[in-house]
Write a structure and sequence with these properties.
mainly alpha; 0% strand
Length: 44
């Protein structure tokens, strides 16, 4: 298997980092929604 050139490797790293950033944001939104629902369920 040939190693990608520095430019394409850098592009792959940047693309993966962008995907990680988006996924992190989505997880944080879901955690916030979960916390909001959980706090409502605990209110008498």
């Amino acid at each position: 298997m040939a190693l990608p050139g520095a430019r394409s490797l850098g592009d792959a790293i940047a693309e993966l980092a962008a995907h990680i950033q988006v996924a992190t944001y989505e997880v944080m939104v879901m955690i916030r929604q979960f916390d909001q629902r959980d706090s409502r369920d605990l209110t008498p």
